[in-house]
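Subject: sequence -> structure tokens, single chain

Hey, anyone have a minute? Need the predicted structure for the following. Not urgent.
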Amino acid sequence: MYAKIGYVAKFFLIVVLLGLTSCLTSNSQVNKKSSQSEEEVSLVWFAASPLKDTDIVSNAEAKLFIEDIYQTIDEKIFDPAFKKQEREQNFNELIAEVDKKQNWSRSQLTKRINNQLKKLSMSHLKILDPIEGEKLFRLFEEEPSSDLKSDPAVSAEIKDEIGILRVKSFIIPQITKAAVDLAKAQLSQAKVILIDLRGNGGGSVSSISYVIEDIIGADKIIDTDRSRRGLTMEEPYIFRGYFEDSINFGGEAEIKLSQEKGYIQWRTRSHAKKDSRPYYILVDDRCGSACDAFAATIQDYQAATILGVRTMGMLFGGEAFKLKWHGYALIVPVTQVISPKGRIIEGVGVQPDIEIPECKNGGEQCLEKAIELVIDNRYSFFP
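Reply:
Had a minute. Here:
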């Protein structure tokens, strides 16, 4: 999720915003997607859009736009049968509502469609307008700032012999293996490690591996994911480790592998070394997507104590596709992700081992309470 690519693949960041012919009206025609619509989505697609959210569109054009959206969902969703009946009903309700007005502004229509899509209760299903899309894709297509005053995705500090590793995002290139290694080195003298994932909205499975292999050890499953292409495959392709920063800038290598294989089991490296220090993981209700996956994997292996509140439970892998309006794109769940023990986290989330109510809604006392809990257990790791 990912720089210098035209679309967003595995583990789409969800908190930043955060043919279906059978469900179409009988007299409507669905245009086949043009070759242009199949081109990669990029920052330019949003930034160069001539359309404004105040533009007025006719009832007929509004319905064509809706048909384009639902056709895209039907063609790209990880399983054509997933909530098919609900999708058909959802579409018909929307068309009926649009029929009641002769004209719509683009902002009114996209807001109404997004509200309708939310009723399907699927993560990574959303229209991006030019403003939202440009803001989001700048994260994927621009290198992290070298400004010392900027807020890095990875940072480290030691408090009372507790090493706090703050990981704000798993998005490449916002996070890099080099940055993680540097932060780990700064915590070499800590007696216990607290990984702070508050507000982490997700990113790449490679960047999960940067952090998680120290906790769960060598050749351990991180997660297994399957796209539409992999539905008929009996055995997953196994990939161990991650792509180094030099070849994984933006996650291109990871995306290509996911597209090629369709059914993949991601594992830690065969020669990974487990850290013997006690680990605690702090999560909140803004921890989603790849952050959900991280917490689920840790919990499946009982490799660390999870603190905080239930995570978002938004663990489909999303991908962005162009829509017929220039500068508009649709994020569709194209991958189903399963935890090492076969748990489906989508719609469920990860319940912490020790709940900290202060962590709800970005509570200011969350980290302080977590540190207090770790210190209360100091007899188990301090001399």
